[in-house]
Specification:
Layout lengths: L5 E5 L18 H10 L4 E2 L9 H11 L2 E2 L3 E4 L6 H17 L4 E6 L20 H19 L4 E5 L9 H10 L4 E6 H8 L2 H11 L3 E6 L1 E2 L1 H9 L4 H7 L2 E2 L9 H9 L4 E5 L10 H16 L2
Parallel strand pairs: 1-2, 1-11, 2-3, 4-5, 5-6, 6-7, 7-8, 8-11
Antiparallel strand pairs: 9-10
């Protein structure tokens, strides 16, 4: 892959988990970004320990040669007024714009169960026609607002939401405007559909509309346990559902080839939430970086 077109980053969720604050509570922001740089990454997303003051954040990242490439946005069009969500989005957009990011990753979480104790497979929401209309309309408006700043809006398909399965992603992508892009997440589609083939199928189908990539590997034996024991998403995280590229079931070689053959430009970000007490963040970051270099040349 061409390093002038594709950059490699890592998310802070391997160091400190926003949804499970006890995971990595001992790890500081400074340790996190220092170890990212030490492992050879040049980009990061935004975690709950990152300074919100843009000058302070820029100083800390510039010292380490790291830039912000994206930050999760929680859209709640299914439970809040459109006006309220769009105001929240504009503040989020402006923060990322100030930090130099070109992409905004949004997930519709108004009625998501990802943070609840409900079983992840049995209790996921299924949108009504009215909810679909709200989500599609809202994403179209967010995309237009992102374009005002020269940025791309991406939809993060995610376990426990109404845009999780292949069928739901298809419906979403066929309903929204062309300026709404997909945040392709290898781990979430494997988790949802249960096969490696689904990772390739989704990417091939939408590669021309992929605006951001999450490199997330998965442990199928843990997914099987989650399904059999009707575990929640967060209980699955604690049990080790996810891991870094090169440590799970996904062969990223074909994924990198599809991206390269179709001229993908942007970031590929390792995003693998684990318990830092079980999976040392620096050790796993180094493992991921080595694997990505071997498989992609980057």
């Amino acid at each position: 892959m061409d390093s002038n077109k594709v950059k490699v980053g890592i998310a802070p969720i391997g160091w400190t988990n926003d949804d499970l604050p006890d995971l990595g509570s001992e790890n500081t922001f400074e340790q996190c970004v220092s170890e990212m740089a030490l492992a050879g990454f040049t980009g990061t997303e935004v975690g709950n320990k990152y300074p919100r003051d843009t000058d302070a954040l820029k100083k800390a990242l510039n010292l380490r040669g790291i830039e912000i490439c994206n930050a999760w946005f929680s859209a709640c069009f299914t439970t809040k007024s459109e006006e309220e969500v769009l105001e929240e989005f504009k503040a989020h957009r402006d923060f990322l714009y100030e930090m130099g990011a070109k992409v905004i990753g949004a997930a519709e979480v108004g009625n998501s169960i990802q943070g609840l104790s409900d079983p992840i497979f049995e209790a996921k929401p299924v949108y009504t026609e009215e909810q679909w209309e709200k989500v599609v309309k809202g994403y179209n408006k967010m995309a237009d607002l992102a374009e005002e700043k020269g940025m791309k809006l991406t939809c993060h398909h995610h376990m426990g939401t109404g845009v999780q399965t292949m069928e739901e992603i298809d419906r979403f992508m066929s309903s929204v405007q062309d300026n709404v892009y997909l945040l392709y997440d290898s781990g979430h589609i494997y988790y949802s559909e249960g096969t490696y083939e689904s990772c390739l199928e989704l990417l091939k189908k939408y590669v021309k509309r992929v605006g951001h990539v999450h490199l997330k590997d998965i442990r199928p034996e843990v997914v099987a346990k989650v399904r059999a024991e009707k575990m929640s998403f967060l209980d699955g995280v604690r049990a080790g559902t996810f891991t870094v590229p090169g440590d799970g079931a996904i062969d990223f070689g074909p994924i990198f080839k599809i991206l390269e053959d179709n001229g993908y430009e942007g970031w590929m970000v390792v995003e693998a939430e684990q318990d830092p007490a079980k999976a040392n963040p620096l050790e796993y970051a180094l493992k991921a970086r080595k694997y990505i270099k071997e498989k992609s040349g980057l």
